[in-house]
Amino acid sequence: MYWKEFMHQCREIGIGSLAIVLIISVFLGAVMTVQTAYQLVSSFIPLTTIAVVVRDSMLLELSPTIICIVLAGVAGSKIASELGNMRVSEQIDALEIMGINTKTYLIAPKILASMIMVPCLVIISVVVALWGGLMAGAATGIIDSESYMRGLTMEFMELNVIVALSKAFVFSILLSSISAYFGYNVKGGALEIGRSSTLAVVISCVFILLADYILTFLLLNP
User: Fold this and answer.
1) Domain interval for residue 39
2) CA 67 to CA 65: how far, in whole Å?
3) Can you tell me the distance from the alpha carbon of 72 to that of 178, in angstroms, rounded to the nearest whole number?
4) Can you give the C-alpha Rg of the chain in angstroms?
5) pTM, rounded to two decimals
6) What's the pLDDT score for residue 124?
7) Residue 5 burial (CB count, 10 A)
């Protein structure tokens, strides 16, 4: 029963959010490539620097933070709404009467699924964003494909990948647990479910940005 619910949440959070993650990532990579090329106006700076900046920006900040904020609105609001509807319609009370631990059955699979699927989505986001930057650079003539690919491998630091996955892991816990808390403890009717979902998204975004600052300070400062 728990495994079935866990796989259902993995599908809802992972597959259900994949389309929006792909769209956002492509345009993030394309915009970063164009913007970086616009700012690097000196002829002394090699074109490969554009790819280096796009790669590190996506790994360290844009993919983990932006994607998790989007997921807080997509998956987080869905978690809060689902649990809120079950609370208002007394489905949670019925499960408790049947002797089922509702926190373990309803909340734990959502948090565990987020901890697995959100880092996977962030990895996909980084790859797609770098591809989007490659396509944008080649289409606009800003940077050729060979220089872009060479720049992606220049001065690569494994620490950046660790930072990105660490942020994604922490953000996944925040967005799923906060959303589950507000949805599980909602009181009232349909209007309160909407308010609870909105509040869950806002609080999740605030905590994600706060955690982003703390993790960046701890992981990147010697």
Assistant:
1) 2-220
2) 6
3) 10
4) 20
5) 0.89
6) 95
7) 17
